[in-house]
Amino acid sequence: MKVFWALCLCLLADNVVAQTVTLRPQARPVAEAPEPVVARPQLRPEGLTPAPQGDPTAELRPTPRPFERPDLARGAATQAIARAEVGMFAFSPNAIALSLRPMVRPAAITQRAVEQRIARQRGQVCGDPAIQGEAIGRVPGNGACGIESAVRVRSVAGVRLSPNATIDCRTAGALKAWVAQTAKPAVGQIGGGMQSLRVVSHYACRNRNSSSTGRLSEHAFGRAIDIAGIGLRSGGEITVLTDWNRGAAGEALRKMWRGACGPFGTVLGPNANAAHRDHFHFDTARYRSGSYCR
Length: 294
Hints:
The chain has about 290 residues and is α+β, with helices and mostly antiparallel strands. About 25% of the residues lie in helices and about 20% in strands. The protein is built from five helices and ten strands; from the N terminus they run ααββββαβββααβββ. The chain has helices at about 1-25, 105-125, 170-185, 240-245, 245-260; strands spanning about 125, 130-140, 145-155, 160-170, 195-200, 225-230, 235-240, 265-270, 280-285, 290-294. Strands 1, 2, 3, 4, 5, 6, 7, 8, 9 and 10 form a ten-stranded mixed sheet that branches. Strand 4, helix 3 (about 170-185) and strand 5 (about 195-200) form a beta-alpha-beta unit. It starts with a helix and ends with a strand. The mean pLDDT is about 80.
């Protein structure tokens, strides 16, 4: 009987030990980190793969539609009527296919022009077609008076001298320059423009201011000319005596007086003295200090 119970106890003890061993926690094996999954692109079939050309996204971008900008087009700054460049996009509907050629000038007009040129060359003096007159050579005078190579001038720069003036070529050239560069522009269109000069003195063997004593005037050498009036195409006249301080005519006279200071060596007007209240005195005397203008 004792042997039986001893055997039962042994079996019970083995069962408890087995259950104890079973309840003990077991060490878990360390799991290895899974490898990252990389998403790889799938290859397209050969028939669907486009050939690489430039930007691969170009076909996906919107394409702007073309539109016209006539304000930026070449030649837009000019009107079609005035545009005639070769290869332009537009031409005037009034344009002609071939340009007109100028008509041949009539022979009569050409002949008349030749005759006028020959006449001017025939009437020129001092080697200048703009100075018309005749050469009269030496003009003798009393004492120191006289002109070695005198010319009788009837017009300068298309403006008639009334009466003709006997002077030397240097004075004639200065008068022409003054008429062309100063007198004509100063008169402008007053009375239709300048037509003539009223000459009140040119060559004369006398003293200054026609006094009985004193130095000889430049008139005694043909180097001076006195002008009292400007003849107009309308038939009127601008006079130094009456128009010096009057309106547009007076302003024109003052421009003439100022413009003469340079071509001439001496320029005297109404403000110089009583002897010149009614005319301009121009002469080609030369001074070391320059022109004398008063």
